Amino acid sequence: MIYTETVLVQDKIRAFASTVLLIVGVSPLEQLLEFFREKLVSLSMERTYAQATGRFIEWLSVRAHEFTDTPKRSLLYTAFLHDLRFGTYQAGVDAYGLNWTATSQQNAKRLTRALLEFSDWLNQRHGATMLNPIHHQASPADQLIFWRKWNKQKAASLLAHTKRRTRAEESSHRGRQARLPRDRNGFLAEAKAFPAERLDDLIWQGFINPGRKADTRPWVKYNLRDILITLLCTYGGCRPSEPLHLWVDDVYTDPDDSSIALVLVHEPTDGLVDYIDPITGSKRKTNRADFLQRFCGGRKPLTQETGRRHSGWKGCLLTHRERKAYQVFWIDKNAGRLFLTLWRMYIQYVRPVTPQVPWAFLTQDGQPLGVEGFDDSFRAAVRRIGLLPAKWAGTTSHGLRHRYGQWLNDLGLGDKEGQVAMHHLNAKSQDVYRQVGLAKVVAAIGKLTVTALPSFKDTE
Known about the structure:
The protein is mainly alpha-helical. The protein contains 16 helices and eight strands. The protein has two domains: about 5-175, no CATH class; about 195-445, Intergrase catalytic core (hpI Integrase, Chain A, Orthogonal Bundle). The N and C termini lie far apart (about 80 Å).
């Protein structure tokens, strides 16, 4: 059996950016790295491509010989898809040594799409070097090319069932497709929001610094850093990772009310930054990746960091086109006032004075706080007030954004307003946050009066 593994390396060709390298046996799969350089996908997508390709290569090493006969070759992708979806165990025994367990239909689709996209690219770029892996000692890339080319010539695409076809076309392909079972059930996507009645406890009890309960100085008693992030997520609708990209100069006073904070969250790489040219003294503008590289000791945006410094960026509806930033819309103006008060305390008394580190939220040793570090602190705060950090209860950091979505419902905001408030690129994306829960459905139905209810008649 051929074993594969993925490692994270720095690609010199792409200015030492982090990239995923797939090791097949003892050799790197150079073609996959070439694919990444051309496509410029995110690090998480690189992991998906590497995982899908590695799984298929391992699977081929133990099962490809079963499809040596030409009539059976078109069944190879069907067999792979089945093993990927339902696992390789039969009656508790895995005869192949793959030790695959069943996975969800969604995950199976995700991996197979990635595999087919890479293998199609291999066909286009390296198809001329294709060898028959059944009769030759071919490389893993050559095997991918061979099987994909055969599959496209002799059978329908592995995911052809997801494309639209006429009835006649569908009938002609029915016997040759590798089909995933169709799930005809739907589920209520009830939003699990942080319980509103426990928010005061979370902020003023959960974030008390250990051993500092009796201190009268707010910046000593409380973990102001994580309270500020929590306010942005709860009353501003931010995802937990987004406030971590905030720089010290990204918080202003609202021109319409100087007691309220105006917060602009910039795109981590392309967001605009103003600076004074150290040579000419003139005001200039550049993007954040360039500023970090030139003026902050070669630092990188947190989206490109790894480990505990990493913070993701899902993509947002940017309300400030020139700055490539979105504005935080406070669902309660009092939260904006509280944020500004605590922000000033945090900057003056708490935040470490660290040169060349522009991020607002730092660790005690002056390094940018990553989403993993905030989540650890948030879970500890939830436990301090007697709650269990759990997704099903809405008591994770993402449950704060769900609370914001439920408040939008309470205010009666429409889809367009909700899309802008939650910074969604697609108006439909807010549905999961604004889904009405079972309790509200029961309460609404209970208020109805049924006029057509038949009267009870005594049958005796």
